[in-house]
Write a structure and sequence with these properties.
two-stranded antiparallel ribbon; 3 helices; 4 strands; alpha+beta
Length: 92
């Protein structure tokens, strides 16, 4: 259950995955990275939809070779998306 109050998100009993199916047969040239299917819990899916942040695909492509750069970009994008206009914010 996700609740947003006073610009603060509260998540209780947050289960990300309801179930997944892992295939053990693999292509010899490739290792298995993710399950074949993943069923998200309804609460988690709703939370993702309610708090989605737009990311520029060109920026993602240009940062694709750096996990840290992708993390920083995604963090700044979500942070800046939630700052009210004309209200400066300090980021430590």
């Amino acid at each position: 259950m996700a609740t947003v109050m006073n610009d603060c998100a509260f998540q209780l009993d947050s289960k990300v995955s309801k179930a997944f199916n892992l295939l053990l047969v693999k292509d010899k040239r490739q290792r298995i990275l993710w399950p074949a299917t993943l069923h998200l819990s309804q609460d988690y899916f709703d939370s993702l939809q309610n708090h989605a942040v737009p990311l520029d695909e060109r920026a993602l492509a240009s940062l694709a070779n750096s996990a840290m750069a992708l993390d920083v970009y995604a963090w700044f994008a979500q942070r800046l998306h939630r700052i009210p206009r004309r209200q400066p914010q300090f980021v430590a």
